[in-house]
Amino acid sequence: MRRLAATVEGANDYINTMLVDIEDWTGADDEKKARLLNRATSTLTRVFPKYVIPDRAVYEFVNVLAIAYNDTNRLNKHGISSYSITGVAAFNYKDTLRSEDEDLIPRESISAIEDENGVQIGGKRIRRTVL
């Protein structure tokens, strides 16, 4: 399958221009941005193996991953339900964010894949079910 070439520079341009909640992406160093970009690309490729994954889909998703893996949410993702920094702040999570990366794929990424491939995926997300 042909794939467009998402880059950190391209992600910077797209995220700074098109998205609103960008602080976690812009605050990350270039090495972390590259790791997030690799994770977004590999997750989308695994979840949608039959489709071309356009850069826009990767850029929408990588920003979500930057938020999910920020310092605060990273602790929640690892199952920590609360913590405090004496005299500074206390953090309590309503629920732990024990989700897989594919559960975080935004609708905008799916729409970009649909547009690129001329298909209707219809909000398809891969989820595990326990019977």
**How big a fraction of the residues is strand?**
5-15%
Specify the overall morphology. globular
Mean pLDDT comes to 82
Q: What would you report as the Rg, rounded to the nearest angstrom?
A: 16 Å
How many helices in DSSP terms?
6
List its traits.
131 residues, mainly alpha, 2 strands, single chain
Which helices and strands, and how do they pair?
Blueprint: H1 8-18, H2 23-26, H3 30-47, H4 55-68, H5 71-77, E1 82-85, E2 89-92, H6 107-117
Antiparallel strand pairs: 1-2
Helix pairs in contact: 1-4, 3-4, 4-6
Describe the structure.
The chain has helices spanning 8-18, 23-26, 30-47, 55-68, 71-77, 107-117, and strands at residues 82-85, 89-92. It has one domain. A two-stranded antiparallel sheet has the order 1-2. Helix 4 packs antiparallel against helix 6 (107-117). The model has no long low-confidence stretch (mean pLDDT 82). By secondary structure, it is mainly alpha-helical. The protein has six helices and two strands.
Task: Characterize this entry briefly.
With 131 residues, this protein is mainly alpha-helical. It has helices spanning 8-18, 23-26, 30-47, 55-68, 71-77, 107-117, and strands at residues 82-85, 89-92.
